[in-house]
Amino acid sequence: MCPDGVPLPDHGWKLHVSSRSATYSELVEKLVPLLLAEGCVFKLARSHQVLDRLNNGYSAPASVGKAFTIYPDQRRVRGLGLELAELLRGHPGPRVLSDRRVDQDSPVYYRYGPFRKAGDSGARGRFAARIDGPGGEEFEGRAGLHYEQPAWVVDPFTGQRPGEESAPEEPAVLGHHYRVVEGILESARGNVYRAVDQRDGTKVVIKQARALVDETATSGDIRMRLRNERRVLHALKDCPGVPRFLDHFRHGQDEFLVTSDAGPVNLAEDVARNGPYPIDPHPGAGDRRRLETLGRRLARILLDLHARGVVMRDLAPKNVVIDGDRVSVVDFGVAGYDGLHLPGGTHGYAPARQRRDEPPLDTDDLHALAMTLLFATWHMRPVTREDDSDLPREHALRAIRSAHGEEPAGVIGIIADLLGDEHTARTALRRLAAGELPIPPTTESPPTTESPRTAEVSGATRTRIRTRTEPSR
Ligand SMILES: Nc1ncnc2c1ncn2[C@@H]1O[C@H](COP(=O)(O)OP(=O)(O)O)[C@@H](O)[C@H]1O
Ligand SMILES: [Mg+2]
After folding, report:
1. Which atom of ligand 1 is nearest to the CA of 187?
2. Are residues 401 and 419 in the same domain?
3. How far apart are CA 192 and CA 205, in angstroms?
4. pLDDT tens, residue by residue, 140-197
């Protein structure tokens, strides 16, 4: 909305008002008349759907909480901000990470930034996100996950200039005991840290769940996923290849889960640094980074999980942690156990039925295992398209066929079977875990002289790829 005659500068202080989806209509009713009367320019999420997308933390991480963006007359920033904070006291919304908050009890935030979308070119044809100061200073105006302020402006609420801030945003000791040593992941949904338990020196990993981010009416917000993870880790407390649950605490409105540190890198990082996992490594290269070894370790973990009634539902390269010879599976936020699960998963790794939120099945993890192993050996993510949930599987099978023929042997044959029907996939998992791989069809001997076992295996695999490429149920 742009009331007639309001001149909009290129940049300045803007206000954001955050909201949960559930209370958004109420907020709109309160705020719109007030802003219209104020005569200032503002924009708002045009539907609950748009707001949910802003608040989910992955579509546009720096947009969480920006239900309303207000571009006030610069002389009115402080007055209007305080007025809104008073009016909206107690109104709940996720925290806006790029901004400062006017008042801790109110969902009103502010920052200095561009008044046009990044990408619109400014008056001098420059990228509008970059702001030039009066003394030739430059300020990157794009919002991120931290508050930033140009050197030449003074905070209209606190009177501070940049660098005069007092406390750091995140404390160095979390939950009274855990000294943060390193950030693993910074995310609008919650950061993940490596820390040390000061009581006994144990190395731990701490995962944060930010309040009210990615909230849905039926499955709660990210904190619910953290609680589900705790529940599932408890059920897996004696399971090898899974981190141990250690602690769960609140800090402010956010929640934190503490688990044992499973190792320094995940599979995605390992492949990026050390290259793909070969199917047939050079002689003497060792067994550790061999695709079959990785597959066998993961298959054994999955068999253990499934034996305890857990379906992981999010096996993907970033959720596999590598520590030398030790392989672990992490991230049980959407796992299913005891008749309960939360919607979610990683696009391309989760099968079509999981994306349709059908009840969890052990074979969902087998689809994800196949995709994870293909990533490990090809260093390629599954091919995905928003409107075609079965495409990753179909594409993977076509790629296997073009690279390895109709009758892939060894671990590739197993991967193809993991993408097959339920019975075939389960058999493949057991064989992978036991190290019983399909024998390659002999190239030296003509088909008539195949050994009976090879003939049997090849016979079975001959029809395999064809059946596998039929759509899964
Ligand atoms: N227990 C752990 N030990 C070692 N690394 C971990 C552990 N838990 C998580 N990580 C690392 O942190 C990253 C993010 O953690 P994850 O639980 O997957 O959070 P998210 O739900 O945000 O994906 C993982 O990709 C992995 O690299
Ligand atoms: Mg993860």
Report:
1. 22
2. yes
3. 7
4. 889 999 999 999 999 999 998 887 766 556 669 999 999 999 999 999 999 999 999 9
